[in-house]
Every structure is written in structure tokens, then in C-alpha cells.
Amino acid sequence: xxxxxxxxxxxxxxxxxxxxxxxxxxxxxxxxxGQPMDASGFRALASYLPDRVVVTYDPRGLGRSTxxxxxxxxxxxxQAEDVHAVIETLGVGPVDxxxxxxxxxxxxxxxxxxxxxxxVLVAHEPPLPGVLPDAVAAERALxxxxxxxxxxxxxxxxxxFIGMTSWRGEFTDDYFARPAPDPAMFGMPAGDxxxxxxxxxxxxxxxxxxxxxxxxxLAAAPTRIVVAVGEESEGIFTxxxxxxxxxxxxxxxxxxxxxxxxxxxxDSPYPGKAKEFAQRLREVLDSPAS
Length: 290
What we know:
By secondary structure, the chain is α/β, with parallel strands linked by helices. It has ten helices and nine strands. The protein has helices spanning 43-47, 76-90, 102-113, 135-152, 154-165, 173-177, 206-209, 215-220, 237-248, 274-286, and strands at residues 2-8, 11-18, 30-33, 54-57, 66-67, 95-100, 118-124, 224-230, 254-256. Strands 1, 2, 3, 4, 5, 6, 7, 8 and 9 form a nine-stranded mixed beta sheet that branches. A hairpin with a 2-residue loop joins β1 (2-8) and β2. α2 (76-90) packs across α3 (102-113) and α4 runs antiparallel to α5 (154-165). It is globular.
């Protein structure tokens, strides 16, 4: 693996290139992006794709990538320009792109702005409450997570986040009537270290979840867009959002193994099924365009 640093507008972007261990190079380069997860979260998945050149990166201000733009918000359109700069520097486009969570939101912004960059986009569980039929309630539920974090710190905020993202179905009065979950139920610390800059729980992520996909631009792009959803995510927030985005694009979400982080190593804190996930990803990338 080779690590590179690229200067973009207001950031120093660090990205890794893992050359194919076998194969004749017949596959497009595969770029993997997440948010707020950095490149390290894709190591297990990449290890099961030895026939492809795999490129991963750390979003600006996260992991090894620094930012000098004076901002703290993780804005999808800005991050999309960073990914575009990496692809342009590689000089190998159009690439295949696997993007998960907030990275999937960045990827949708990238394809809308630079449709020639990506051959196939697999957008895995984009967290977009605004596309849901209960959008107002979903946005209220997410705002309550931010408020809980602002008030009680990481443990309280993460417990609220888990409670929100594991709720099945629409966010009804029954959801809002529930007492705040106890952090200890999820193994979270009850204390408050005073920090309020967590990229997932703070308002730093608000630009990600408030993003609205440009459906017209996406439909006009030459990119084949596949919205992916974990088999365990049916009915919960990111699963419902995935189905809604796919419907807006005139398709159906494609089921992948495991959960929201289903590509994680089996010995990780949130174990997935990386080998099975990689096989499903290969099938989707290699399938002919419909």
C-alpha cells in the first residue's frame, strides 16, 4: 500500500492506494469512502478484493487529513470536491465507488457535480432523514440526539443515537414518549469529559444529514447508481432512507449482508461479514447495466 497526500482547497487529503495482488487489471479502480469513518474502516473489506486496485481516503479534518479552511462542518459538496481531486490526480477514471453512510451522501454529491468520475456507485445506507415520508419527525429525532450530546456528552449522546437508529418504523409519538436510554445499557460511559466535537454526534454532521440529493442530475449522469441496504437494516432509519433514495431514483435498494457497518472485520467492536459483503459488492460491480 502506498500513502499519498494531496493539497485541495483548504485541506491536506491523505489517501491510500493498494495495488491488486492478482488479476490482470481488467477492473476499474475501486474507491471506498466513508463519513465520519476514515480509511481504516475499509481494511477488512479491501482484503477480500485482491483482484482490484483499492483507493481509500480520510475525509478532511478526520483521521490523517487536516483542514485549514477554518470550518468544522462536514459538508458533502466540499468533500465531494476532495474526492474528485483524488480521482483526477489518480488519472484512472471513471472509477467504481463504494460509499457508506455519510460517505454515500458525499458520493451522491460527487456524481451530481462530476458525473464522469464514476462508472458504478454503490451508495450504502445514506443517512438522509429528509427523503423519508416522516421526514419532519425523523429530523426531530436526529435533532434530539444532537441536543442530548450537547447536554450530556458522549455517552448520553451515543446512547440516544443508538436508540434512534435502531427504532423500527416511522418516528411516532411512541418514540418521542420514551425515556432517554441509559448509556450503561450500551456499554457507554456515564461521565462527561466536556468535549463537544464528536464528528458523528455534534452539529458537525448536520450538513450531511440535511443534504438533499439532486435527483435530476443523478438521473442524467452516466453513472450506474446502486443503493445498497444491509439485510439487518430493514425498517430502521438508514434502511428506510436507503429504500426512499432508491425509489426517488426509480430503482430498488439492493440487499447486502449484515448491518450498517456490515463490511467491518468480524473481530471489530461492531463485527460485520466482510467476506460475504465483498462477494456481494463484486457481484454488483460486475453485473451488466440494466
